[in-house]
Specification:
With about 120 residues, this protein is an alpha/beta fold. The chain has a single domain, classed as Response regulator (Rossmann fold). Helices cover about 30% and strands about 20% of the residues. It starts with 6 loop residues before the first strand and ends in a 9-residue tail after the last helix.
């Protein structure tokens, strides 16, 4: 079944420089999805906003604490939103092959993984 418009996916980690950024880079050229990545911390490359939550069809967080922060800070905005915690530790460098493998493993039950 083809989507009439791309599904909007938001990837979230702490500082938006490693895990969520890598996920965004992997998916950014995959026409099936529109993607953004954001961070929950004040020093994030791009910090998550209510607008990001409103934009997203599905939100993938890397750790439970990211999910909890979103649920606490954006209580009204997350109503009806699907949030999935991937449980990916902050131990990787950007675009590290082991991180890409873990993203592939964790995301494949929710969304297609692009050929890279």
């Amino acid at each position: 079944m083809e989507h009439s418009s791309p599904q909007k996916i938001l990837f979230v980690c702490s500082i938006n420089k490693y895990r969520s950024y890598t996920a965004e880079k992997i998916y950014e050229k995959f026409d099936r999805y529109q993607v953004r990545s954001r961070g929950t911390e004040n020093g994030a490359r791009i910090k998550i906003t209510a607008g990001d939550i409103g934009w997203a069809d599905i939100i993938f967080t890397m750790e439970k604490r990211h999910t909890n922060r979103i649920r606490k800070k954006f209580r009204e905005e997350i109503v009806g939103k699907r949030i999935v915690t991937l449980f990916i530790e902050d131990i990787y460098d950007p675009m590290e092959p082991a991180l890409i493998d873990e993203l592939r493993l964790k995301l494949r039950r929710y969304i297609l993984f692009p050929e890279i």
